[in-house]
């Protein structure tokens, strides 16, 4: 994802990273790809959490994570679940 790369630059630009994650989230929602939506929401929520926006991060990620009823052993769902616990 472009946002992850932007966040890892020597001089990261959090606003650009957030924009990339928001774009990825919008595209995933438009296409109905829940897995990609989860990944984009997790990345954006992580960024927001690092910025002290923990409540917003949780409000974004919790409903997306809640759609899933199986596959909790996958890397994306484990990552999202761990982040939700950290944001609580």
Question: Any overview of this molecule?
Answer:
The chain is mainly α. It is built from 5 helices and no strands. 31% of the residues are buried.
Q: Low-confidence spans: pLDDT under 50, at least 5 residues?
A: none
- H-E order: HHHHH
Largest sheet: none
Which geometry do the CA atoms define?
globular
Write down the Rg.
12 Å
β content, as a range? under 5%
* Helix content class: over 70%
> Helical element count?
5
Gap from first CA to last CA: 26 Å
Estimate the mean pLDDT confidence. Answer: 90
Question: What distinguishing features does this structure have?
Answer:
88 residues; mainly alpha; 5 helices
SSE topology sketch:
Layout: H1 2-7, H2 14-31, H3 34-50, H4 54-66, H5 75-87
Helix pairs in contact: 2-3, 3-4, 3-5, 4-5
Quick overview of this protein structure:
The chain has helices at residues 2-7, 14-31, 34-50, 54-66, 75-87. With 88 residues, it is mainly alpha-helical.
């Amino acid at each position: 994802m472009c946002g992850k790369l932007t966040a890892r630059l020597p001089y990261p630009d959090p606003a650009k990273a957030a924009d990339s994650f928001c774009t990825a989230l919008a595209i995933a929602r438009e296409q109905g790809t829940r897995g990609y939506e989860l990944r984009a929401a997790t990345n954006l929520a992580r960024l927001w959490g690092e910025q002290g926006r923990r409540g917003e991060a949780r409000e974004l990620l919790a409903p997306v994570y809640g759609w899933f009823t199986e596959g909790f052993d996958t890397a994306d769902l484990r990552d999202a679940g761990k982040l939700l616990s950290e944001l609580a």
